[in-house]
Amino acid sequence: MKTFVPFYKYIVGIRPGFLIIISFLAIIHSSSLASPGVRFTTLYGDSIVIQKQFSNKKHNIRLYPNANQEVLFFSARGEAGRVYQLFLFDIDGKLVKQANIKNNQTTVLNKIEKGNYLFEIFSDDERIENGQVIVR
Q: What is this structure's pTM?
């Protein structure tokens, strides 16, 4: 004799990976709707949001918050001997933070006030990336 199992118990009790897969597919689908050439890296909640608008394929630049959303990490991997400069501007165009790192290094930007910022990353007077940082 077969017993009736409600659908929600079936998914939660027997197939917990099912919800993870569905969530992952929904995220991939929603990110594919962005316009071509614009990459978004977005984190939700009381957080730091990073939106990249221009990215150079030769350089692997990472700008990301820590797990507690308190500080911003800046790391770069590219050509040996390269120096990368990060400039963080407020909306009025005033330079708020500046960081210089060498290839394969990471630095921490802390004490960033809540607000909207624009960032630019250069190497040898060549713009590597730019975008927006929102601290909530």
A: 0.63
